[in-house]
Amino acid sequence: MSVSTKHQPPSNNFGPQGDSGNPRFGSRWLGPLALLGPAGVWLIFLLVLPTLVIFEISLVPNIKPGGIVNPSGLDNYFLAFQGVYIMVVLRSLFLAIGSTLLCLLLGFPVAYWLAILAPQRWRNLMLMSFILPLWTSSLLRSYAWITILRPTGVLNSVLGFVGLPGLELLNRPPAVLIGMTYSFLPYMVLILYSSLEKLDRQLLEASADLGATPPETFWKVTVPQALPGIAAGSLLVFITSLGDFVDPELLGGASSGTAARLIYDRFLGQTQNWGFGAALSMLLIMAVSIAIALLLKYGDRDAQP
Amino acid sequence: MTLSSCGWTLADVRTTVQTASDVLYIYTWAGYTDRDLLNKFQQETGIRVIADVFSSNEEMLAKLQAGAGGAYSIIYPSDYMVIKMKELGLLTELDRDRLVGLDQLFPQFESPSYDTDNRYSLPVSWGTTGLIFNKEQLKPAPEDWNYLWDNQGQIYKRATLLNDAREVMGATLRMLGYSYNSTNPKEIQEAYEWLAELKPAISAFTSDAWRSQIVTGDLKIAMGYSFDANEVMEESPDLQYVLPKSGSSLWTDTLVIPSTAPNLEAAYAWMNFMLDPEIAASLCKRLGFAISSQAGFELLPPEIKDNPTLFPSEVALEKSQGLIPIPEVADLYDRYWTRLTSA
User: Fold this and answer.
1) Does the beta-carbon distance from B10 to A274 stay under 8 Å?
2) What value, to the nearest 5°, has the Cα angle with vertex B145 and ends B140 and B151?
3) Which residue windows does the record flag with biased composition (Polar residues) (chain A) (predicted)?
4) pLDDT of B192
């Protein structure tokens, strides 16, 4: 957001529109400049310029370190739309959408309970305990899932103990979904909580007074109010899981190639091709940017009361 | 700068970082140094060693090429990477007059195929790639690569292969009677087709995660390096390593001095330290890797000398080959590998 703000001439954004009387030019510019300057410089040097460099490299076919960067065309982008790569991208999308839905399904009841039903004085403590897993490294959390899901692991020991047949989950797609959902659920809960916390309870009471059943109240009053939170939480989980490297790598097994792995291999694998890797990165960046743009356009409108 | 129309060189390696003369930075594999070794070196030479580790040759090369390796005076690349680094002009030619004990290496390391006369590199550790299996669960014991194909039902989803295109394709090529370094597109395609047939039975392509899972009994068989196999066999008596009959890949990890090395004195001191038979023998005993020093080997107790995982017999090694870079078909290997691991 701040990036695009930085690109436009600031005069469009700041200060009253069409304000011709402007006696003190300095004070009008000083405020925004002082507030946006440090972050703006940071973003330009560490986000905008590097992204432009990635874009430039993506225009060079088959470039390795030591090669001359001389942009020549979109060949790398065409390469990305070949059969096997499409499959990888589809798998990434499937995993990202799947874990987003799972996070929403699991996270909404929790956030709802925390924000509306839980006793006030326990709320912060419980929210905190829910975010606690984020304090450990994501790598560690994935390794923990290996211990739980492996054929002779914790899960199957418990299942065997209560007389149920074991499950084969590790090194298969369900394990990746479980790992990602676990990793990103706290983000979803946090965002949904802050959105549900602001819910206008009088509307709920009014809805009940006017004869709506609880499910009707939920779907017609609660959910619409929480929609911006749902959109923001889903987008955050979707973006992070789309670029996730650790979970598919450790839990996914032999058929776990994702976009992140594909990019990694172009840069650090045996056959280096930084141009193609950069093109894949740009495609990922563009996909995510489009998703954010859609959210800004439609998400904001929903946020209007 | 970035948008100028004329080209710039991607990842240009810059020279020399200033470091203190009594500090030596080395870049090595995990498991090749320990506190005792570094302390002993400091006692003998007064040079403090700071060791960073990498987990693949490619990662190491990428770091150097990104210009972040300027502090290192000693690096531990594997054989094929020595060739690549030499071609990229990243290595210093060794001054043989400053090295003591070169004549005490095993004969096969006097002039290895990846580096004639050890002009740029010094072999420190070597080994093979083979199969580690659980002998309680798999009977009769596997003897060759084809065991994986012939017993797919038995090993279904309880087997892993290395996450390395050349090793996995190479083993398959060898099993089919071809060279590990085949450049024949027909042979490479044939190997891919065999692997595609085996893939449903494979649980994962991994170079390290198999270790804990085979100890706990979650895997029956894994493709791995002899060095790692030796380590897991100490943890579980049920595990055994086999060098496949049709041949395996022979790898060597070496010491090199990068052309950007800031501290040549210390680098040669480290090389001579590693050439010392006593040191080599103690490393083999303590860290469990096969050493290249014959004089060091003679100092080892018989049970280590006779350990076939660490020191396989000449006969067993006869059919094994070192991997060499084959840039002309690198893309082909990569395409098949991506198809295999992504589909």
Assistant:
1) yes
2) 50
3) 1-15
4) 97
CATH number of A76-303: 1.10.3720.10
Nearest by CB to residue A65, choosing from B3, B10, B166, is: B10
Q: What is the pTM of this model?
A: 0.84
For residues A247 and B168, give the distance between their C-alpha atoms in angstroms, rounded to a whole number.
23
Mean per-residue pLDDT, B33-38:
92
Residue B18: predicted pLDDT: 61
Q: Which residues contact A299 (CB under 8 A, 6 or more apart)?
A: A228, A231, A232
Q: Is the CB of residue A69 less than 8 Å from the CB of residue B10?
A: yes
Could you give the CA distance from residue B97 to residue A79 in angstroms, rounded to a whole number? Answer: 51
The residue of A49, A69, A88 whose CB has the most chain B CBs within 10 angstroms, and thus the best one to mutate to test that interface, is: A69
Q: What is the mean pLDDT of residues A25-35?
A: 80
DSSP letter string, A178-246: HHHHHHHHHHHHHHHHHHHHT--HHHHHHHHHTT--HHHHIIIIIHHHHHHHHHHHHHHHHHHHHT--H
How many whole angstroms separate alpha carbon B215 and alpha carbon B240?
11
Alpha helices (runs of H) in chain A, residue ranges in sequence order: 2-7, 25-43, 49-58, 75-79, 83-112, 120-131, 138-149, 154-161, 173-197, 201-209, 214-217, 223-242, 246-251, 259-268, 274-294, 300-303
Chain A, residues 178-197, CB within 8 A of chain B, namely none
Residues 96-135 of A with CB under 8 A from B: none
> What is the domain extent for residue B243?
127-250+319-342
Residues B138 and B173 in one domain: yes
| Pair B231, B335 in one domain | yes
Percentage, residues of chain B above pLDDT 90: 73
pLDDT digits (tens, 9 = 90+) for A81-121: 888 888 888 899 999 999 999 999 999 999 999 988 888 88
Distance (Å, rounded) from C-alpha A113 to C-alpha B84?
60
* A169 exposure class (CB count in 10 Å sphere: 0-12, 13-18, 19+): buried
At B274-316, the pLDDT tens digits run 999 999 999 999 888 899 999 999 999 999 999 999 999 888 8
Could you report the predicted ipTM of this complex, rounded to two decimals?
Answer: 0.81
Query: Would you tell me which residues 2-31 of chain B have a C-beta closer than 8 angstroms to some C-beta of chain A?
Result: 2-3, 6-12
* pLDDT above 70 coverage of chain B, percent: 95
Domain count for chain B: 2
Select from B331, B56, B304 the least CA-distant residue to A64. Answer: B331
**Where are chain A's structural domains?**
76-303
What is the rounded CA–CA span in Å between residue A242 and residue A287?
Answer: 10
What mean pLDDT, rounded, does chain B reach? Answer: 90
Q: Are residues B117 and B143 in the same domain?
A: no
Integer CA distances (angstroms), B280 to B34, B104, B186, in order: 13, 11, 44
| CATH number of the domain within which B186 lies | 3.40.190.10
B125 sits in the region (left: phi over 0; alpha: psi -120 to 50; else beta) called beta
